[in-house]
Amino acid sequence: MTSRTISDFYRKHRQELLYGVSLALLLFVLRWLELRFLVLDHLIEIYVGAIALLFTGLGIWLAHKLTTPKVETRIVERAVYVAAGDEFTVNEPERLRLGISHRELEVLQLVAEGLSNQAIGERLFVSLNTVKTHSSRIFEKLEVRNRTQAVERARRLGLIG
Amino acid sequence: MTSRTISDFYRKHRQELLYGVSLALLLFVLRWLELRFLVLDHLIEIYVGAIALLFTGLGIWLAHKLTTPKVETRIVERAVYVAAGDEFTVNEPERLRLGISHRELEVLQLVAEGLSNQAIGERLFVSLNTVKTHSSRIFEKLEVRNRTQAVERARRLGLIG
DNA sequence: TGTAAAATCACCCGAAAGTATGACTCGAAA
DNA sequence: TTTCGAGTCATACTTTCGGGTGATTTTACA
């Protein structure tokens, strides 16, 4: 396991780690409070109150972290295209004729959406290298040299919508 | 105070009332649990655990109620009329709206044909750098990050055939 | 159940694309 | 005359693509 992998792991699981550490700390504080107040058992109400407060806070914090990771107002401008109504179906015979696999077609569709290889890999849960292999094969089969031409050609052949 | 006023009051302060009632109920349960378990003081941990759980839940619920209405997504839909016929004419209003110059459109068309920047430069008798400048401006104006997305978008907007 | 095709991933390398910034020319408009 | 947009070009840099090669694992099917 390299340091790259470790930092990747940290990045990906930062939140979970934070929660874990926070919970551990809380339990520690709990224990301390317990030992502190248990001897004076008429202070049990204060103790319980503190616990209640503490955990209400924890709940709020948790919910906040979990439900509002981005409190930004998104303005999505969506263009509605008239006269582009018909549904698309893949030209299956053409796909078979060119020997393009399902996975390759899938990659091709994402390429057509303008995604980078990296982004495609993340979308399909495969590595960058795999995406590159797929796209290279696609280019070969479509007899083109780059993704833009591939999209152009695939459109004309009815492989993508 | 009429019944109308009362129902108005209820509508306006429904949330606050709910909170109040809930809190009262909680305190009641608390009290009950206290009496229940205090005699068996080795069950204090269970008691405290229950309290903790309860109030964590309360916190989450509170936070949820308080923060969810703040998420706001505005979707601006805009109709774009694309020529449905076979012959293509540039959607001039759209070009002007986006502030895309004629030269830029020319470059965009060649990009759509799948030419490399180098090839576009040779076709238009300008340097590679000039083509890059143009295409960068195009990307900005179309709000995209690469040529594939640019072609995709330009096609939909009726800027290219 | 064995085999071929498909899918996955890695590493290297050079080319192409894209970003950022600045500068120069030219013609039209203020 | 000044100003401004469009077009041109450059330098420097980072990122992404695409080609080549080889390998392992999964899946499909005969």
Walk me through this protein's architecture.
- The structure is a homodimer of 161-residue chains.
- Chain A is mainly α.
- Helix content of chain A is 69%, strand content 6%.
- Chain A starts with a helix and ends with a helix.
- Residues 1-10 and 68-82 of chain A have low confidence and may be disordered.
- At the A-B interface, helix 2, helix 3, strand 1 and helix 8 of A face helix 2, helix 3, strand 1 and helix 8 of B.
- The first copy, chain A, binds a DNA duplex (30 and 30 nucleotides) through helix 5 and helix 7.
Write the layout of secondary structure elements.
Two copies of one chain form a homodimer.
Chain A: H1 3-12, H2 14-38, H3 44-67, E1 74-82, H4 92-98, H5 102-112, H6 117-124, H7 128-142, H8 147-157
Helix pairs in contact in A: 2-3, 5-7, 5-8, 6-7, 7-8
The structure holds a DNA duplex (30 and 30 nucleotides).
